[in-house]
Hints:
Number of domains of chain B: 2
Strand order of the largest sheet of chain A: 1-9-8-5-4-2-3
CATH architecture of the largest domain in chain B: 3-Layer(aba) Sandwich
Oligomer: heterodimer
CATH superfamily of the largest domain in chain B: Bacterial phosphonate metabolism protein PhnH
Distance between the termini of chain B: 52 Å
Number of helices of chain A: 6
Helix content of chain A: 25-40%
Low-confidence stretches of chain B: none
Structural class of chain B: alpha/beta
Mean pLDDT of chain A: 92
Mean pLDDT of chain B: 95
CATH topology of chain A: Rossmann fold
CATH class of chain A: Alpha Beta
CATH topology of the largest domain in chain B: Rossmann fold
Strand content of chain A: 25-35%
CATH architecture of chain A: 3-Layer(aba) Sandwich
CATH superfamily of chain A: Bacterial phosphonate metabolism protein PhnH
Number of strands of chain B: 12
CATH class of the largest domain in chain B: Alpha Beta
Number of strands of chain A: 10
Order of helices and strands of chain A: HEHHEHEEHEEEHEEE
Largest sheet of chain A: 7 strands, mixed
Strand order of the largest sheet of chain B: 1-9-8-5-4-2-3
Shape of chain B: globular
Amino acid sequence: MKLDLVHDTQLAYRKLMDSMSRPGLISELGELAGKVGLKLNCFDATVLLAAVLLDTEVTFKIISEKEEEIVRLFNQLTYAKAAETAAADFIFVLNDANSFQLEEAIRKAKAGDLIHPHASATFIVEAEQITNDNGLVLSGPGIEDTHHVQVSTCGSESRGSWLDERALRNIEYPLGVDMIFVDRDSRTLCLPRTTQISKKVNN
Amino acid sequence: MNIAYNFAFFDEGSKREIRRSTLKAIAIPGYQVPFASREMPIGRGWGTGGLQLTLSLIGKKDMLKVIDQGADESVNAVNIKKLVTKTTGVRTVDDTEDATVVQSRHRIPEVPLKEHQILILQVPLPEPLRYYEPSEFVTQRLHAEQEYSGAWLMLFEQIMKYGHMSTGADHPVMVQDRYVMAPSPIPRFDNPKMNYSKALILLGAGREKKIYAVPPFTKVVSLAFDDYPFEAESFEGASCWQCGATGVFLDELIDEGTGETYHQCNDTSYCISRLNARPANH
């Protein structure tokens, strides 16, 4: 791995912070993710985000058919410990997971409580492609007017219903889950709990 | 003894912890996220919250501006710049336009911030309800229940005593209709700059171990009553004696010889850039 754990993680964090503070802003992590250089069953950008976010102080859950393999790797790389979905600080939903698993994870994930709304899970979800095409209309803090994004998820199954599940989980603001999406080309997009999403109706 | 510190002073674990807290703070605008607040080579309460945020996010290509009450050259600002440059090698700048990261104590610069910039404010007392309620245990619950009578009561009592809201600085604001937040001791003059700011604003309280944030384009409303509207400090009829600026935040000074009062820009780099832009024969 050629990733510089001081400077490359700093650059990745800044891009992530840009995207988190401006939901709908797609940040390119490609150059940094390219330095990961591990042949793995998950995207390079996912490993990069794990390096930015995980350490011994937090727990994570991997939702994938290759859960065991990726858990071992993330544990070796970051020393973070795996936990069940309901307790995990970071939940990685890899691209081989199906829509049902993503929805279930959103349902089970911790959303904090009113005194500690920050004690909630952050999702890192692998998507096939993230673009600024019409599709989802975002509004809320960080967005001047509205932003348009399209998150094409993997496989033949539609993952569209995660939107409803997310809306349900975030209904009692400030409780909720924050989501980071990464795609095959290492583009990233964030949907913090404050972002309101509506679907564009095609005429 | 010469110690080779890690880039940006902190070990990577400390940075990661601050970064995780910052991301949560951005996701819940105005909510104070607790963080570990590491020991720093300057005393707690002297800008360590802002400094920790700066160190957690700064990179080799950043341009850093640090101001203290609007001044680039004050002791606090200079020492913070020295610590950051010695441990990172980043360039420091005075012109607000040139900076990518602006760390500030008690002011938001006169030059409007842009989208690629990050403003970091040093916060002594992050809890807007502290004046009314000394217990952290209780104020956490008041925030949870959105019970902000204390903040309103504080302003109401000021009106009863003085006939107007007398917050000199740190006038509480409501963020995105949910959290009442201390905007740090910026003058009321600067409060409106937070509303739908183009730049991300991060606030750090080192001694009180809290990080909070106002993302760009977020609604920030200064608390006020219908019959006692919020008013910024007025400098009607006054201008800077050096550069002649009006409509900016001015310091009132007294000429000790004559006893006359005069005004000067509080934001020194703004004033100097105006002076430098003047034609030479002026």
